[in-house]
Structure formats: structure tokens, C-alpha cells
Amino acid sequence: MPAERQHGFVLLEAALAAACLLCICAAAVPAATRLQEYHYKAQVRLAADILAADIRQLQQETMFSSAKYSKTLYVSSDKQSYSIYLSGKNSPLCKKVTFVELGCTDVYFSQQLQSISFYFNGSSKSSGSIVLKHKQLKGFYCKLSLQPVTGRVTVTEYDG
């Protein structure tokens, strides 16, 4: 009568399975880190693109408005939001944007113009740059440049 065969794993099979799992985990950790970094960069880009669009819209409204006022964009003191007023901080609020509402909770203004407004010909009353960074991401930022004569807004990414 033949001997009965025992069922189960041999120690070598269990060791091989554990080694395979370790290799998969070792490959997954850097991929997850890169995915998180990509997500942080996307948040900064989104905030920069929305801010640039609002600045361009502000310029267009000033140029093509028949009204005798110009809207002004102010960066808040908490460095995570900005507001657009009709003509000054004591005038009616037209729009308020916070990065938290955009889903960009850790994005902040690192360097900014305090206010942005335009002349009726479209040129900027102030020139300079605005830098947006992420609290969890070192070395990456988006810089919005506002040209003095043309009022052109450019967005540039820096990855250092």
C-alpha cells in the first residue's frame, strides 16, 4: 500500500513567496512616493493656472469695461487665498479664492505682489512675480510673472 502524501508548504516554498512579496513591496514604495510628488506638483500647477486665469480676466475686464473703476486683486495675509475687489479693499468683494476650496490645501504664496490692478489700456500698475509653493514638496515651485508694460502673465515651473 502506497504511503499517503502530506499536504502543505515546504519551507523553501514559503521563503520564495516571502521574497516575491518583499520585491513587490520594494518596487511599490518608490512608485507611491513619485505618485505623491506628482500629486503635490499638480496642486501647485492648478493653483497657479487658476490665479493666472483670474489675473488675465481682471486685465480683460479692466480693458473692455465701460465703467470708470478698475478691479484689484489682493493676496491675503494668511498666504493661502486671494480676493478681487471692485476698486479697493473697502469696496464690494467680487471674488474670493482659497486654495483649500480648490483642493490645494498645502499650497501657499511664498513671494507675492501685495495687489494687482491694471490701467484701462491693459498695462499693469505693478510688475513683479508671484511664487506658489507646496508645504510638503521642497524645491518645486511655480512662478507667475507680470510684465509691466504689456500686463502679460506667464507661468513658469521650477524643479530644483
Question: Describe it for me?
Answer:
With 160 residues, this protein is an alpha+beta fold. The chain is built from 1 helix and 8 strands; from the N terminus they run αββββββββ. It has a 4-stranded antiparallel beta sheet with strand order 3-2-1-5, with helices on one face. A 4-stranded antiparallel beta sheet has the order 4-6-7-8, covered by helices on one side. A hairpin with a 2-residue loop joins β6 and β7. The longest helix has 54 residues, at 11-64. The protein is rod-shaped and about 105 Å long. 21% of the residues are buried.
Short description:
With 160 residues, this protein is of the alpha+beta class. It has one helix at 11-64; strands at 72-75, 81-85, 93-98, 107-111, 115-117, 128-134, 137-146, 153-159. The strands form 2 sheets. A 4-stranded antiparallel sheet has the order 3-2-1-5, covered by helices on one side. A 4-stranded antiparallel sheet has the order 4-6-7-8, covered by helices on one side.
CA gyration radius, whole angstroms:
26 Å
The geometry reads as: rod-shaped
Number of strands: 8
Share of residues in strands: 25-35%
Mean pLDDT: 85
Topology pattern, helix = H, strand = E: HEEEEEEEE
Distance between the termini: 74 Å
* Alpha plus pi helix count: 1
* Largest sheet features: 4 strands, antiparallel
Helix content: 25-40%
Structural class by SSE content: alpha+beta
Low-pLDDT sequence parts: none
Strand order of the largest sheet: 3-2-1-5
Topology, please?
Elements: H1 11-64, E1 72-75, E2 81-85, E3 93-98, E4 107-111, E5 115-117, E6 128-134, E7 137-146, E8 153-159
Antiparallel strand pairs: 1-2, 1-5, 2-3, 4-6, 6-7, 7-8
